[in-house]
UniProtKB/TrEMBL annotation:
<protein>
    <recommendedName>
        <fullName>GDSL esterase/lipase</fullName>
    </recommendedName>
</protein>
<dbReference type="InterPro" id="IPR001087">
    <property type="entry name" value="GDSL"/>
</dbReference>
<comment type="similarity">
    <text>Belongs to the 'GDSL' lipolytic enzyme family.</text>
</comment>
<dbReference type="InterPro" id="IPR036514">
    <property type="entry name" value="SGNH_hydro_sf"/>
</dbReference>
<dbReference type="Pfam" id="PF00657">
    <property type="entry name" value="Lipase_GDSL"/>
</dbReference>
<dbReference type="GO" id="GO:0016788">
    <property type="term" value="F:hydrolase activity, acting on ester bonds"/>
</dbReference>
Length: 239
């Protein structure tokens, strides 16, 4: 394949054949780190320029994957970072960050919303240009927000807190002591450990989902829920 021709080391990875790429179902979950790193490091963000750069990079990757033979691609959008415990914990030391009606950071979710809107436009454009009917969007943002607003529907009791943390605050987040690590707080050594029942949480460590919420995401995907346009994995798996 072209990728192997450009980099001989890739041959060692035993990349799938074009036939396997063509008949495979691919899932892509990009961009979260692109926004996470910028949101916490800069108070003044040129959101339109950032979003344009990120979406353009995703488009370039999709074109490359399509050119290599992939025909069924489920692309996830970005979850509401303003509702993620890590960012809510960060906001405790940054009172200028305003909360919205969902008790999430409004400015962070505004950036994510802009990204998701532009991502949808890009998907629509590629589907038309490349006649790529197997390119669909999974609305990760929507299912996450549904869980924040309707936690009992997902058997969640603490939608804005992390399962794994130090118990430092209402979000169970100490940014200096990530999940699984130990550190000193007021002269005492503490460890960021797991909660007693992870199924009551959306977030495992402040950003990534718990296993139970990941199951909700997978179940929705398998059922064709939160998909744009409508899409059936069952049909896509037929020979």
């Amino acid at each position: 394949m072209d990728l192997e021709a450009q980099n001989k080391d890739l041959k060692l990875l035993k990349l799938p054949s074009i036939m396997k790429l063509t008949h495979g179902i691919h899932v892509m979950m990009p961009a979260h780190n692109d926004y996470s790193n910028v949101l916490v490091s800069s108070a003044n963000i040129d959101a339109p320029s950032l979003v344009s750069a990120v979406v353009s990079a995703i488009e370039l990757a999709l074109r490359g994957i399509h050119g290599e033979g992939a025909r069924t691609m489920i692309l996830m959008n970005v979850l509401p970072l303003g509702c993620a415990p890590s960012f809510l914990g960060f906001a405790l030391t940054n009172p200028s960050l305003q909360k919205d009606k969902d008790s999430c950071i409004a400015s962070y979710n505004a950036v994510v919303d802009l990204h998701n809107a532009e991502l949808k436009k890009m998907v629509q454009s590629l589907r038309t240009e490349l006649s790529w009917t197997g390119l669909v969007l999974f609305d990760l943002n929507a299912i996450y927000m549904d869980a924040v607003r309707n936690p009992s529907k997902y058997a969640v009791t603490k939608p804005l807190a992390a399962c794994c943390g130090t118990g430092a605050n209402e979000y169970n987040i100490n940014l200096a002591i990530p999940c699984g690590k130990s550190g000193t707080v007021n002269g005492t050594t503490v460890t960021a450990g797991r909660c007693s029942d992870p199924s009551q949480y959306i977030s495992w460590d402040g950003l990534h989902p718990t296993e139970s919420f990941a199951e909700h995401i997978a179940s929705a995907m398998l059922k064709g829920e939160f998909m744009y346009p409508s899409f059936s994995l069952e049909e896509a798996c037929k020979p």
